[in-house]
Fold these 2 entries.
Entry 1:
Amino acid sequence: MAKKLDKVDVVIVGTGFSGGIPAAELSKKGYKVVALERGKDQDVTDFVGAKDELRYASRYYMQQDNSLSTITARSNTDEEAFPLRTQEENFEGTDVGGNSSHWSGVTHRATAFDFEARSITIEKYGEDKIPKDMFLQDWGITYDELEEYYDKFEKMAGTSGEEDPVGVPRSSPYPTPPMKETPPITLFKEAAKNLGYHPFQIPSGNISEQYENPDGQTINACQYCSFCMMYGCDFGAKSDPIVTVIPTAKETGNYELRTNSFARRVLHKDGKATGILYVDMRTGMEYEQPADIIVLGGYPLSNTKLMLLSKIGEPYNPETKKGVIGKNAGGFSSPSSTITGFFEDKKFNLAMGAGALGGTFSDLDSDNLDTTDLDFIGGGMVELRLRGEGPVIYNRVPKETPSWGKEFKEKSLHYANRGLFVVFKAASYGWAFNYMDLDPTYKDIFNDPLLRVTNRITDHDKKLEEFGIEKMTELMEEMGADIVENNGVAEEWSHQQGYGEAGGGVIMGDDPEISAVNNYSQVWDMENLFVIGASALPQKIQQQTATVGAFAYRAAEGMIEYLEGDGGLLVEPKK
């Protein structure tokens, strides 16, 4: 039987930005906050000297142990799903800081179109533009309403960037200057301008100069060491929760962090959440942590699984298309394309880099792109990134090159610093047949059902990807590449969860019939339960960290209003 602990004001599951931001904001207000993290504790000192490509980039040291819990995957409802056992298949962060501790640092905001994709599409193109079975939904909040929270997130994170010439309006500049423009970025920008686009530096959480944020936390300047994406930063130069919101929460004296604490259920009675049931992974002891407010601030897969296991909200049913929990699974097969260019007469320093170092443009994204005569909705961002190419996971050679032998060695050496790649990153929209539920066969270490993902690639996705390949090929040729190659369009989902970019499952909206949370991330069916993160996204956007951070700041504001007021829903549902 679980041991019942003393009640606190707030209990939060997760220590990434989704959990860390409300922890900092509520503890600063004097509320007693307990945070449950399934992984171990860690800080910047744990990463000193840890520039080990094999350990982190190939063996995924900072990802969860899939022998404890994972997901199962299938492409159609008539298939049996099977567990994804390796970290390469199911890439989900763990430990203090969550996915945000090893993210690349790319910090794009969502577009105004993303927030109102359905309304804008119908207004501009008519409802017939929306394919059958596509769940294109508005978010129940506009960009203008969320802009102040984006601004707050960027000031906390010290985001380095410059304004997108054709992007969404901003209330203030980025708090630190953009990262350095290196020769490959200059080449990319010049080619983009020649084609009529408006390139700019990628907004980055690998910040360009030392910065003290409004909470008094110092983030150091990026050293361009390349050990960034999939690594923790030993310089303290990445704006992650470990150097920002977690220290802020700890300094209040109102925050208790419990690591190795695996949340299993949201406990509830008479329509209100009462606490979290969790297991101490070191002792096997079960505990019940009561609280006035319960926050699920985990990865989308974890948030969705906890909601389903706890029997909160109506699970999505693909046959009736009713229900909301598990709906609009996104990001598992995003229609993105990569073009690689090889240069015979140019050499670059590709060993130097950072997770978000690069150039980008948004001329082909959302309503910047007129899709009247195109067979898809939306569009995509274009980017060239210089993450730093280590010898283990990067070894670009032209496709006809043998995979071993003398010619392979010669071309590996020749093209080691002559290959660049550009990416077209597109949104992944919700579909009636792409969803998450509980697997009827496979269990986790606690004998609870695994989360099952059903996902398939659509014709819409393929057309969007083909468009990206065409445009990126043109761009790479303008950059002067002698050999231009692409990976083609995927016909079927590879059954990989991939790179920690899942979304959906507990989606946001203004109508409880088609959404699980309101625009304060408050669960419609349970007013003192807040579910924060990319799980709220009705469609998987191109880069979601800044949006998740904005959601978290707005949710924290709502929680404070809830605790200081008379309770109830903070937003009335659509009539």
Entry 2:
Amino acid sequence: MGPSLHTDNNRNTATSTWRQQAGERKNRMRFLLGCLLGLLVSLPAMAEEILIPLQKLTPHSLIKLKCIGDAASLEIPISDRWHVKKVTLNLHYISSISMIGDLSQLVIRINDVPIAQVKLNPLMPDALLAVNVPPQYLKPGYNKLSFAVAQRYSTTGCENPCAPGLWTDISMQDSSLQVEYELNPVPLKLSSIAKFLFDPKTYPEAHVNLITEDRSAENLTLAALIASGVARHYDYRKVTFGVSPQIRPGVDNIVIGRTAFIQQFLGPYQLSLGTVKGGYLKVFPLPTDGGADNARALVVVSGENFDHVKMAALTFSNISFAYPGTQELNAFEFKMPEVASYGGRDVLTANKVYDFKTLNFPTSTFQGMNPTGKELSFRLPSDMLVLQNHSAKLMLNFAYGSGMRESSAIHVVVNGISARAIPLNDKNGHFIQNYQIDLPTYLFKPGANVISFGLELHPELKECELTLTNNLFVSIFDNSTLAFPDMPHFVELPKLELLMLNGFPFTRWPDGYDSLIYLTDPSSNDAVAAALNLVGLMTQKNGFPLLNIRVGFHSLEKWKGDVIVIGDQKTMPDALKAKSPLHTSNTSLIPYPVVRGWQNETATLAHSRQISALGEGSGLLMQFESPFQVGRTIMTLSADEPADLYRLGEALLDPEVQGQIYGDLVLVEMTQPKFRVTSMMVGKTYATGKQGDVSWIDSFLYAYPYAYHALLGLLILGLAFAVYVLLKRYRATRKLGEAQKKEPKKE
């Protein structure tokens, strides 16, 4: 018994020890697996890598460097959110085989600091170059990446300084910038809204998620206001909005609602608000299931009641510089300046004199034999009726150096059309003030316009003389002016291309006043997100926050302004289906182009009445005159499925899609890797005026010009007949008077 008991005790002790050791091993394994999992989860946040094609940073597909010396540059965006670890420039260039390799070279600089130089080898003209860019030379903001060449084809010193064989082309399509970076923590200051959170240098695009208290018209209007403010901060950078009831990880989130809702929403994350008085804003690190994501933010927009929440939303959308430096604020009043119609980014007001400094054209000096010119960009209102018999007044103040040939000149080019060459024919140089150029208005167009100044500077040299270029310069001063004459506001619609130009007609008032977004199903996250993406698009196109745009879903017939309707085909109102270019109220009247004539001629259309559907993976964008108000516009975004509606909203943010949109009917197929766009002009035209309201008489006469001509002819005939009757009566009266004079007087 004894030995047996002893053996059993030893066995039990050994078993207990083994179990304890096994448990410890399991705990260690769990710990190691947890550490490994945590490491894998944290790796993407610790280091990220992005490839930036240089084509995305410049409108030019090639940089052309010519003559014996030339230079060009572009701007590299570095976000404030990035802590740059490593940067590699991959460069593809082709140089002329006529150059001497030992005397020709390419120098690459970042912020004017040389980082690489390479010989232009005529035996290897097509070259790929990888350059390590030292991160210490980069700063948050826009960094100047420049290329300069010295190009020679002769060793005798007697050569044409701009010989045709002196060239190097750098391909922007095949060159790229590879950036490895870590994300910086979000500063817990509301001032980060202006520069850090919604940074236009974020590449390639940004994503923001919005959370609302409910789907009431008031809260969705606030969501649209906030989305507009966010999009304006991102400037031209693409930003995509999402909508969800909960926090979306990996992106910045904004939660909107009254205090009671916000406190309930933040409770599970162990976050709390401060003292809420009036409108209230606060920024937190983004809560996650495992703690917090310090590289993303949760912004709270709140208040005790709806009016206070709106005040907070207005304040949020207009924070534009580094104030306040606190984590929270209370807002008690918000006043906007008076907003004029046809405002927005770079829009000229008629009969107003603008100096070049106001038009973002500072005093500029152009030097050398091959100087790069400069552009002056501005916009005219989208509904401006540009008359043909007027002229814009350009008044130039400029100076140029001595020693130039009389063939030297400043070329003035309007929208790609050469309009004037200013001779620089004084060999002693000159300073000229108030040099007036009358530019015919038919060179301009509604929307974006560009006046370019190109330089032809030729030295007065004989063959084989030493070339000195410091005296070859032209300075155009920023007190030069431009004035555009007054024009009527009257435009023919539908023209969806104007929407892609600056959001017209919904931005006739730049703050969106008199415009409504009508949601056929406000409970759909996809429809709401599509609406917010469209609001962001129009904000960025016009450069002004849509602080007065409305979101609603009741009493569409009572709205007297312009309307954007967003919804799937099943919930689209019948009155709009019947009025739309497809006439989809009962059956669909589908237009099919048969033959297309000249460029500006309407396509010949065949129409098929059918019962059919749009199908999966496609969306429709249509524009037509409101059935409820003459001269007002209805625009619809629709798809068969809500998911396709969201994808349609995303597709409209694509610049390639935007460039293919025109007319009144646009079909977008959400194919990969590129969207397919079909645009047509199908329905009837209508006219809209300065305030959008046009009388039915004006609308009828504009839509039916033959009726106008007929009425004009009847008026002329009626006037001629009236003159004829008056002359006939006058003649009869005159004859009667003469006859009475000839009659003998009675005794």
